[in-house]
Amino acid sequence: MTAIDQASTKANPVKIWFTRCGGATASTVAIRKNWLQEEFSGSEVTLSSLRESDDPTVRASHYDHNLTSMFREGGNIPPIWARAKGVDTVTLGITWVDEYQAVVTRPDSDIRELSDLKGRRLAVPLHKDIAIDFQRGAALHGFKHALGLAGIDRGAVEFVDIPVEPGAGAAAGGGHGFAVLAALANREVDAAFLRQGTGFKLWQERAPELRQLLKITDLADPLQRVNNGTPRPITVHRSFLDRHPDLVVRYLAVLLRAAAWAEANPSEAVKVVAAEGGDAREEVTALAYPRLAASLTPKLTSDYVRGLEAQKNFLRDWGFLANDFDIGSWIEAGPLEEAQRLVAREARSAA
């Protein structure tokens, strides 16, 4: 820690907010194992969970990144959207956790091949209670992958808005899944998109009522699996990084340790993530996130960055962003590199 940081934190503890989106993150492991809290238990830092705040403006930072002292690891649509609006955040690391994604139809549908989607009605959830409708973006991107594989232009299908009741699935509650499947069952649409553990549970529970047309999770090309949950960036305001670089390094080091533990303890990692989602059936988590335990390590490799850029470009091209921006200028590799060196030194000392 620098002399400036020492002086400021002893006199006035630095406030750090943390938030994660979806259970499949290194942050989830670090938080539920209490490692993040232990790292910042000293008097120089006050650590608070965003989701435990009673202030709606504070909680809204999960989407708009309005808190300059907040670390966020989670779905990529909100932070990309916020950056495009001019919020001066940086990406400190990226994880690539493949999650369940599928296009489904009714069992009696005459849609048998992806090419049969041409001219059909595709369900797209519509939320009016959140700043950025990331579930809508995720559904559109899922359909884009399916249409692209069949060589179908998006103008050759009808995207049907399916309103989702306020509060019924803004984050990971799955209300949007129930809504689009109800529209499918009522024959208002011909196909729907499901994702995450909640979507996988719906697929399992309603298997007799659904037929899986395409399981995107199984596609070989990583860029064809890009969506809101894949890849996931770890972000913080640039001003916080400038003021407290050592705290940023320490935060990232906790995530690296948590990811290493998950890879060494895959069954336990699945339990942790399943508990985060309130799902006692660990097999659902294991099947919805098939490579979970080995995928939580934050990286800034070229393939991870390309995935993030592909998602940004999709959001730009489909009208979700106020402005375009350069992904390279959003990346700050130094803190992760220093955190990696810190964890490596610890490992050598412990050997």
Report on this structure.
The protein has 351 residues and is an alpha/beta fold. It folds into two domains: 3-97 and 229-350, D-Maltodextrin-Binding Protein, domain 2; 101-225, D-Maltodextrin-Binding Protein, domain 2 (3-Layer(aba) Sandwich). 45% of the residues lie in helices and 16% in strands. It contains 15 helices and ten strands. The chain has helices at 3-11, 26-32, 35-39, 56-64, 77-84, 134-150, 175-185, 196-205, 238-243, 245-264, 266-276, 282-288, 302-317, 327-330, 334-350, and strands at residues 14-20, 45-49, 70-73, 89-95, 101-105, 121-126, 158-163, 192-195, 211-215, 232-237. A five-stranded mixed β-sheet has the order 2-1-3-10-4, with helices on both faces. Strands 8-5-9 form a three-stranded antiparallel β-sheet, with helices on both faces. The chain has a two-stranded parallel ribbon with strand order 6-7. Helix 10 packs across helix 11 (266-276). It is globular. The two termini are 25 Å apart. Residues 1-9 and 168-173 have low confidence and may be disordered.
CATH class of the largest domain: Alpha Beta
Distance between the termini: 25 Å
Can you tell me the number of structural domains?
2
**Might you state the CATH topology name of the largest domain?**
D-Maltodextrin-Binding Protein, domain 2
- The CATH architecture assignment of the largest domain turns out to be 3-Layer(aba) Sandwich
SS class: alpha/beta
In percent, how much strand structure appears in the residues?
15-25%
What is the average of the pLDDT values?
A: 92
Outline type? globular
Uncertain segments are 1-9, 168-173
Compute the number of helices: 15
Which strands sit side by side, in order, in the main sheet?
2-1-3-10-4
Helix content: 40-55%
- What is the chain-wise order of helices and strands? HEHHEHEHEEEHEHEHEEHHHHHHH
Number of β-strand runs: 10
CATH superfamily of the largest domain: Periplasmic binding protein-like II
Major sheet characteristics: 5 strands, mixed
